[in-house]
Each structure stands twice: as C-alpha cells, then as structure tokens.
Design brief:
By secondary structure, the chain is of the alpha/beta class. The protein has two domains: about 375 residues, no CATH class; about 35 residues, no CATH class. It is built from 15 helices and 21 strands. Strands 1, 4, 5, 6, 8, 10, 11, 13 and 15 form a nine-stranded mixed β-sheet that branches. Helix 3 packs parallel to helix 5 and helix 7 crosses helix 8. The longest helix is centred in the first third of the chain and has 27 residues. The protein is globular, with a radius of gyration of 22 Å. The two termini are about 25 Å apart. The relative contact order is 0.14. Bound molecules: zinc ion (ZN). Zinc ion binds next to loops. InterPro entries: NEUT/ALK_ceramidase_N (IPR031329). This is Neutral/alkaline non-lysosomal ceramidase. Keywords: Signal.
Length: about 450
Amino acid sequence: MSWHHCLCSLALSLLLTLVVPQSILAADSWQAGLAKVNITPTKSMWMAGYGARNKPSEGKLTDLWAKAIVLQDASGHRALAITLDLVGIDRILSQSICQRIEKEHRLKRDQVALFCSHTHSGPVVSKNLRPMHEYLLPADQKELIAEYAQKLEDQLVELAGAAVKDIQPAKLSWASGKATFAVNRRTNKEAEVPQLRADGKILGPSDHDAPVLAVHNEQGELRGLLFGYACHATVLSGYDWCGDWPGYAQLELEQRHPGCLALFWAGCGADQNPLPRRTVALAEDYGRQMADAVDATLKQAGTPLTGSLKTTYRELAAPLGTLPTKEDLQTAADGKDKYQAARAKMLLADMAAGKALRSDYPYPVAVWQLGPDVQWVILGGEVVIDYALRLKSDLRGTKTWVAGYANDVMAYIPSRRVLIEGGYEGGGSMVYYGLPTIWAPEIEESIVKEVLQQAKTP
Ligand SMILES: [Zn+2]
C-alpha cells in the first residue's frame, strides 16, 4: 500500500469518525455466514455414551445436526465454529477435518473450532472412546462406524464451504442469560434432587450462565443464535437418535424464530447433569428452559460486537500421572473388568506396534477474541466446572465464555480439586477413553496458564 493510499484512508476514517458514531461503524463491519447439514445416521448403528447399551439404534426422536457459523471482522479475518450433535470427536478425525477445511476453504487451524454437544443419543464417532468400541463391539459395527466417520468428514468440509459462501453483512450482538437445570452430580444425590431443589438446597459448584451471540441481517431479521451452557446432555439413555436437551433447545428456538439457525456449544459441564432425567418430557422441558434463557437475552438490548477478531490455537503437553508397566497392563488384560481389559489390550497392541505409552497428551486450547469484550476460551475434553468458574473470575466474568468438548474429546479434564477427590471425573472415567493413566496434579495449572497466555496476547 502506498503512502498516498494510507493518507487517503486516514482522511476518510477521520471524516467518518466525525460524522458517524464509532460504535455503529464498527458494528456494521462484521459479517457472518451460516449453514447446516443433517448428520443423523441413515443406518441403524451403535450409539455412544453408555457402556451398558447392548444393541444398535432402533429409531429416531430428533435429527442430529452439524451447523456452522463463520464470523468475519472488518479486516476480513474469519473464524469458523462448527457445532455437532455428537458425543465427542477424536484427535485424528478432528485433525483430518481441519486440514481439509484449511486446504479447501483457507481457514487455518486457529480459525476453526469443532464443538460437540455431548449428546449421549448419537452414534459412535470414529476413534472417540476407542477401547470400548474397538474391543467390545461386533465386527459389523466397526464397518458402520468407519463409514459414518468418512461421510461425516465429507459433510463437515462441505458445510464449512456453505457457511463461507453465505458470508454477508451482519449485526452481531451478545448477552448472557441464565438457566438453572444443571446440577453438580458430585455434590447432590440424583434421587434427592427434586426435594433438594424444592428446599433450595442444591449444592454447587455450578455455572448457570448462558452466553448468547445473536446474528441479525441488515434488515434486522434474526438469522442465527449461538449459545452455550455447562451441562451434560444425558437426559436420555435409550435407543433412538436424539440431540437430547440441547437438540430440543435448538429445535425450539428455530420454531420460535423461523429462518433462524440455532447453534449450541457445551460449556465445562463434565460434572453437571440435567436432573431429574430419563424421560423425553424432561429433555423437551430442559430444551424449553434453555430456549427461554436465550430468548430472554434477546429482549435485552444486547451489546453490539465491535472491534476485531483474534484467533489463537496451541496444543500444550498436558501431563499424565505414573504410567502402568507392561506387567500391569497384562494383568488388566487378563482380568474380569471388561473395560479395563479392553484398554489394556489396546495399549499392549499399540506397544507391540512400536508406540510407547504417552506420558503427556497434546491438549488443544484456543482463544477467540470477539471484539474488545468477548473472550471465547475453547477447550478439549470433558472439562469440569471449576475451570469455567476460575477462568471467568481470572478474566472477564460473563464476557469470558468457556467451552469444553471442543476439537478433541480425549478424556475428562478434572481440576486439581476433582483429581485429588477422585471418583469418576477425577480418574475412573479414564479407562473408557483409553489414556494409560490419570492426569498429573499439574493438569489444571498447565491448562490455565496456556489460556491466560493466549487471552492476554495483545
Ligand atoms: Zn460425559
């Protein structure tokens, strides 16, 4: 660019500053593109989320969707969020999808994030929860799983292209609502929750914030609602495809606002359940409660998104604890616990193929700055609520959005507190995901440090 152009544009921006309020200019400079694709399996296949299921899917309560939103700031910098009505995604599939999106749609790794709703009524996704599915399912299911993963990858790459193609001027605004159906499942007994709720005695910690990004077109019509909440999608545990409560929330919002796409991302709800649960009526009811929370934010003025977009992504070496010996694994492989045995067989097979046990894991952390206000922290794995509470307190409160279940769902991610307390989220769950041992106590500090570094990058 020549000095002449620079001076001209400087003069122009000075002139515009004088005649147009800066907030309107900046708000007008954002653009957005939206798209969706149906990812409901077309064949009956194994469902993911509960080890106790003993047969493939039988029917469908709701379709499962992948949805995409591309945000673009005035300089043309873009970020693509893909939300998935799926339990999780593994590193290999996630990398493959992101590499193809980079090649075909020129969005680099830091500009793409894949968010899973963690519905427990969706299909097995590729190598996610690998020991359970690789060692405990009938052979014909493995073919269906591979087939579904390949189709999903193609669909998501195409979806990214459709969202990019849809990019158009938009008015973006954000607000934060509240919903209260998430209950800390470590500190409240499930059977007692109705009474505890009635008595106002539900124990935390929980995070009931529901951040919302609203997308309007230039005519003021609502085109998109992106919202998050920290709670497991585990109301249902049957044999019918279903988006669980997040699926019903998205359906409800799309019915209330024709022409609008609703996109859900899961927060740090690893130790939070929707309670009570186990009926379709309850899943629908939590969906409505979530939709009400999102709609309530629309009635507020909302804060316009101004400024520019910044995207960062790094993988840190998240430390694991003491590794098992080969003899430990052999004992587990021969033991009675079928899940322990499956993991041990998988790790022994990996070792025999020359792959040493991991002593750390490449853990994905991204931070997207949406203008001067909103800071979207994007974490992998099933992250417990302590991370959301700590990061919001260290950073910007409700302006800091903390997503889990993004990019790679490799295990539960306990805080130091939960790790030391133990239990399912602290360590018991590791066996289903296939990592060789529990996390080291430094896990929380290493993740928080990486987030703060990215969040404070000017
Ligand atoms: Zn979970």
